[in-house]
C-alpha cells in the first residue's frame, strides 16, 4: 500500500457523471430490444376484497393492445417468499392499489389506454386503514425490522420514571412517508432460449435474480439482471418489486420483450412506504440532567399480507446511558399497502421522537441541549454493555456547535422577532448502525498495465464505481484511472444490495481483498500470462465472524429556522451536520450523501407526508405536487447548509475503514428542525410535518 499516492479520501468526480448528464447512461426502461412491448398496470380501486371478474373485451379491442394479463390467464408460479410479489396469482385484494391486471401493447400510449378500458368487478369487505393509539388489533411482534427484538427491558423503567425528580412524558407522531425516487420502478424483460434477461431499476440485482429464480422455477444461471444506472431508491428498490415480476411474466406470456415503468401515481401503493409511527417517550432525570430512565414505545402499522415493523424504538437502545430502560414496538395490521424500508428505517422516525424529548428535558432541567447530550454520553452501548468500536458523538456535538455558532444562542424561546418572523435554533444527535454483508469480487491485472475489478455492486446515484476504483487503486498501489470497474450485472461476482448504508463497506471489503491478493501475487512474479492474472475474494467468513464491538456512526445536526407567524410557514435558513462515520473515502460524494440525507430530513420535518384516506383506503398524495419533496427553493444554498466530518480511525470495521454514510444524514434532522421551531416560537410541536396549518 502506497499511502503517499493513494487517492482514497480524495473528492474525485463520478466516473459516470458525463454519461448521466449527456443521456448516454441507460436506465431500465430505456433498453429497447427489437419488438419490445409496453405494459401498464391496473391497480385495484377497492380497499379490501377480491376480484370477481375482469372484463378485458373493450381493452383488447383497442388498436395496439396485445393482451391483458389477469389472475385468470397468467401462468401460475411458485409463491414468492415476499407476498407482495404474488401479483396476478390470486383474486384477493389486500389493499387499494394492488395490481389486478396488466395491459401489454405495442406502444406506451396504447397500454395506458388499454388499462383505462379494463373493467374490474369486485367483492368488497369492510376496510380499516387508520392507525390509532388504542387500536384493538395492536400487538407486540416477536421482531422488528432488522431482526431487532421487539422488546428490551433493563431494570425497572416505569418505577424509576415515577421516582424521578424531573420527568418528560410526551407523544410524537410521524405520518406515512414515501421514498419517491426520481426514476420510477421500471424493468425491461426478455426471454431468449429459456434465458431471462431483465434490466431492472433496483438497489441490488443479485437479490432480484434470486427472487425471479424462485418465482419462475429457474436455475440462477438462466437469469441475468442488470442495474447499471439507478435513479435513486432510498430503500424502495432494496427488495424486488412487483414490476419486475410483471415484466418477466408479460414477456414470457407474449414471447416478446416487455418494458414496464410504474406510473408515479401507482408507486405509493406498490413499492413500500415508511409506516406511520406513534411514539411515546418518557424520560426520568435527576435535577442535574443525568438520565435515570428511558422509555420509548413505537406503535406502527403493517399490511394484512406481510409483517413489517418499523424499528423506531431501537435507537433508544444505543444513544444515552441510563440505569433503567424499556423499548417496545407494537404493530396493527391494517388494509394498507405493505410498508418497507425508507432511508434509515427505524432511526429516522425514532430519533425524531427521542431527540425531541431530549430537547424537552434540556428545557425542563435548564441545561443547554448540547450539554445534556454530552452529560449522558455512555461509555458502552447501553443495551448490550458492549464497548463501542468508536463513538465520537461528543466531538460531533462540540465541533458542530463551534462551526454553527451555537454559543451565540439566547436559550430563551420566542425572543428573536423581526416583524412577523420568529427565529430559533435547534440541535439533535444522529446515529446509524454499521452494517456489512458478505460479498465476492475479482481483480485482474490486464496486459498493458490496466486493472479490471468486477463486483455486482449497484450505483443508486452515490458514485459506487468511483469509490470502488479508489479502494482498488489504493490496494493495488496504482492510480485509479488504471482501474476499470464493472458493476451492476448479476453475472458479476455476487454482492449485497446498496442499502443499510452497507454497500461501500461490503463491496469495498471484497474489492480490497481481491486487489491486495493480486498485488501480492504480482509482487512475487510480475510477468503476466497473456490473458492477465485474476485474484478472487469472498468475505463471507470474515463478515460472519462478526465483531465483539457495538459499531455505529454518529453525528450532530444544527438548524436555524424562521417561522412566519402570519402564514405559519417554517423555513430552514441554516443547517449544519457534523459526522463521525469512520474513514471518509471520497470527500465529494460523501458530502453529497450527507447533504442529501439532511435535505430529506428537512422534507420529513416540513413538507413530506402521505395520508391514508379512511373512506377509500388509499394514499391521497400520489404525485410530486401533492407529496412535496423539498426543491431547491425550500433549502438554503451552501454554505448556509453544509456537512462536515471528523476523520475517525476505527480499526474494528473492515480493511477500508468506512462506517457507511447513506442514511445517517437524515437521522435526527427533523428533530433539529422541530427543536428550532420550538425555540423560535415557544410552542412545542409534536406531530410532523410542521405545515402552516399546524403552526399558525
Ligand atoms: Mo436503505 S432504506 O437501507 O436503502
TrEMBL record:
Pfam families associated with the record: Ald_Xan_dh_C, MoCoBD_1, MoCoBD_2
Q: Where is this region: Disordered?
A: 1-20
Identify the SMART domains for this entry: Ald_Xan_dh_C
Has the keyword Oxidoreductase been applied to this entry? yes
Q: Which InterPro entries match?
A: Ald_Oxase/Xan_DH_a/b, Ald_Oxase/Xan_DH_a/b_sf, Ald_Oxase/xanthine_DH-like, AldOxase/xan_DH_MoCoBD1, AldOxase/xan_DH_MoCoBD2, AldOxase/xan_DH_Mopterin-bd_sf
Keyword annotations for this protein, in alphabetical order, are:
Molybdenum, Oxidoreductase
Q: Does the keyword Cell inner membrane apply?
A: no
Aldehyde oxidase/xanthine dehydrogenase a/b hammerhead domain: residues covered: 22-126
Name under which the protein is recorded: Xanthine dehydrogenase family protein molybdopterin-binding subunit
Instruction: Please name the GO terms that the record assigns under molecular function.
Output: iron ion binding; oxidoreductase activity
Amino acid at each position: 500500500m502506497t499511502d503517499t499516492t493513494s487517492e482514497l479520501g480524495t473528492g474525485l468526480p463520478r466516473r459516470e457523471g458525463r454519461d448521466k448528464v449527456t443521456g448516454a447512461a441507460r436506465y431500465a426502461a430505456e433498453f429497447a430490444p427489437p419488438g419490445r412491448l409496453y405494459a401498464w398496470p391496473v391497480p385495484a380501486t377497492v380497499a379490501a376484497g377480491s376480484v370477481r371478474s375482469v372484463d378485458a373485451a373493450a381493452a383488447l379491442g383497442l388498436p395496439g393492445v396485445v393482451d391483458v394479463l389477469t389472475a385468470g390467464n397468467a401462468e401460475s408460479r411458485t409463491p414468492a417468499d415476499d407476498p407482495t410479489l404474488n401479483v396476478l396469482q390470486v383474486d384477493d385484494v389486500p389493499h387499494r392499489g394492488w395490481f389486478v391486471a396488466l395491459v401489454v401493447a405495442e406502444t406506451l400510449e396504447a397500454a395506458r389506454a388499454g388499462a383505462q378500458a379494463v373493467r374490474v368487478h369486485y367483492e368488497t369487505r369492510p376496510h380499516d386503514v387508520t392507525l390509532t393509539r388504542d387500536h384493538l388489533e395492536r400487538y407486540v411482534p416477536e421482531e422488528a425490522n432488522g431482526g431487532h427484538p421487539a422488546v428490551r427491558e433493563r431494570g425497572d423503567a416505569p418505577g424509576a420514571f415515577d421516582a424521578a425528580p424531573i420527568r418528560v412524558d410526551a407523544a410524537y407522531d410521524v405520518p406515512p412517508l414515501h421514498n419517491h425516487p426520481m426514476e420510477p420502478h421500471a424493468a425491461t424483460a426478455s426471454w431468449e432460449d429459456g434465458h431471462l434477461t431483465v434490466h431492472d431499476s433496483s438497489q441490488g440485482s443479485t437479490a432480484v435474480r434470486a427472487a425471479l429464480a424462485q418465482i419462475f422455477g429457474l436455475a440462477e444461471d438462466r437469469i441475468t439482471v442488470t442495474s447499471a444506472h439507478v435513479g435513486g431508491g432510498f430503500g424502495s428498490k432494496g427488495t424486488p418489486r412487483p414490476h419486475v415480476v410483471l415484466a418477466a411474466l408479460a414477456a414470457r406470456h407474449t414471447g416478446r420483450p416487455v418494458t414496464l415503468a410504474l406510473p408515479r401515481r401507482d408507486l405509493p401503493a406498490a413499492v413500500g412506504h415508511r409506516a406511520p409511527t406513534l411514539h411515546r417517550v418518557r424520560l426520568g432525570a435527576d435535577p442535574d440532567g443525568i438520565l435515570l430512565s428511558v422509555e420509548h414505545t413505537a406503535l406502527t402499522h403493517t399490511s394484512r399480507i406481510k409483517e413489517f415493523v418499523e424499528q423506531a424504538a431501537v435507537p433508544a437502545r444505543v444513544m444515552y446511558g441510563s440505569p433503567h430502560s424499556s423499548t417496545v414496538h407494537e404493530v396493527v395490521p391494517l388494509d394498507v399497502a405493505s410498508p418497507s424500508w425508507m432511508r434509515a428505517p427505524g432511526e429516522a422516525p425514532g430519533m425524531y421522537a427521542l431527540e425531541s424529548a431530549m430537547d424537552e428535558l434540556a428545557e425542563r432541567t435548564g441545561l443547554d441541549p448540547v450539554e445534556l447530550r454530552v452529560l449522558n454520553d455512555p461509555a458502552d452501548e447501553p443495551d448490550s454493555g458492549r464497548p463501542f468500536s468508536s463513538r465520537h458523538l461528543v466531538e460531533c456535538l462540540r465541533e458542530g456547535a463551534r462551526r454553527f455558532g451555537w454559543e451565540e444562542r439566547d436559550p430563551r424561546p420566542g425572543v428573536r422577532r423581526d416583524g412577523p418572523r420568529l427565529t430559533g435554533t435547534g440541535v439533535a444527535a444522529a446515529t446509524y448502525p454499521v452494517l456489512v454483508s458478505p460479498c465476492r469480487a475479482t481483480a485482474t491485472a490486464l496486459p498493458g498495465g490496466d486493472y479490471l475489478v468486477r463486483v455486482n455492486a449497484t450505483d443508486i446515484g452515490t458514485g459506487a464505481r468511483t469509490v470502488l476504483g479508489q479502494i482498488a487503486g489504493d490496494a493495488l498501489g496504482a492510480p485509479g484511472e488504471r482501474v476499470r470497474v464493472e458493476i451492476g450485472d448479476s453475472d458479476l461476482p455476487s454482492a449485497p444490495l446498496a442499502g443499510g448504508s452497507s454497500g461501500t463497506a461490503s463491496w469495498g471489503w471484497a474489492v480490497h481483498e481481491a486487489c491486495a491478493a493480486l498485488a501480492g501475487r504480482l509482487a512475487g512474479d510480475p510477468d503476466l500470462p497473456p490473458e492477465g492474472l485474476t485474484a478472487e475474494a469472498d468475505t463471507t467468513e470474515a463478515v460472519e465472524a462478526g465483531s465483539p464491538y457495538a459499531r455505529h456512526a454518529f453525528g450532530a445536526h444544527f438548524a436555524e429556522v424562521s417561522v412566519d407567524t402570519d402564514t405559519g410557514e417554517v423555513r430552514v435558513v441554516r443547517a449544519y451536520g457534523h459526522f463521525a462515520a469512520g474513514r471518509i473515502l471520497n470527500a465529494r460524494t460523501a458530502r453529497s450523501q450527507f447533504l442529501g440525507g439532511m435535505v430529506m430530513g428537512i422534507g420529513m420535518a416540513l413538507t413530506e407526508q402521505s395520508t391514508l384516506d379512511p373512506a377509500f383506503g388509499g394514499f391521497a398524495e400520489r404525485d410530486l405536487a401533492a407529496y412535496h419533496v423539498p426543491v431547491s427553493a425550500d433549502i438554503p444554498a451552501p454554505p448556509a447548509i453544509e456537512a462536515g466530518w471528523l476523520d475517525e480511525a476505527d480499526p474494528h470495521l473492515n480493511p477500508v475503514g468506512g462506517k457507511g454514510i447513506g442514511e445517517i444524514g437524515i437521522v435526527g434532522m427533523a428533530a433539529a428542525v422541530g427543536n428550532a421551531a420550538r425555540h423560535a416560537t415557544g410552542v412545542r410541536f409534536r406531530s410532523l410535518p410542521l405545515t402552516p396549518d399546524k403552526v399558525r
